[in-house]
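Thread amino acids onto this structure.
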């Protein structure tokens, strides 16, 4: 499998009160290979042109608020009517955990997760011969711990 897994919700719960969100629990089972990023994010609606730019970037979420804000200035879609229904599914994501959008990843048996972009998960469980491969230049944050340029296995967590 390939692609990015983002659990998007609004911004900071401490500013806007309690957010209605749900944790996203993902399990990769026996002999599964997944290549992609996984993260808690905040999302904005974007124009079709903005969606094209996101796709050109591999669909990855923004790592910095500054870059996300600059992108939003040009491509955020804050209002559309029924004639622009096709814009509803176009979003841009910013890596952002707010307590209402946790991502929890479990790998069992021989599952492999090849991390391809900045990832932010609340918890990571690795069982059996499963592993998570984080290449140099990519960061996987699990709770408060950051990993790069390593292979995580069950005996490491």
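Threaded sequence (157 positions):
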């Amino acid at each position: 499998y390939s692609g990015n897994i983002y659990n998007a919700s609004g911004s900071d719960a401490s500013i806007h009160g309690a957010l209605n969100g749900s944790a996203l629990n993902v399990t990769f089972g026996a002999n599964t290979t997944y290549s992609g990023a996984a993260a808690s994010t905040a999302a904005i609606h974007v124009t079709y042109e903005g969606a094209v730019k996101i796709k050109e970037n591999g669909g990855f979420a923004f790592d910095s608020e500054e870059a996300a804000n600059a992108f939003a200035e040009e491509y955020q879609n804050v209002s559309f009517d029924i004639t622009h229904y096709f814009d509803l599914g176009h979003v841009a994501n910013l890596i952002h955990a707010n307590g209402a959008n946790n991502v929890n990843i479990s790998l069992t048996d021989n599952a492999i997760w090849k991390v391809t972009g900045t990832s932010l998960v609340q918890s990571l469980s690795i069982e059996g011969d499963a592993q998570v491969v984080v290449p140099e230049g990519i960061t996987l944050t699990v709770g408060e711990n950051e990993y790069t340029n390593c292979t995580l296995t069950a005996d490491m967590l």
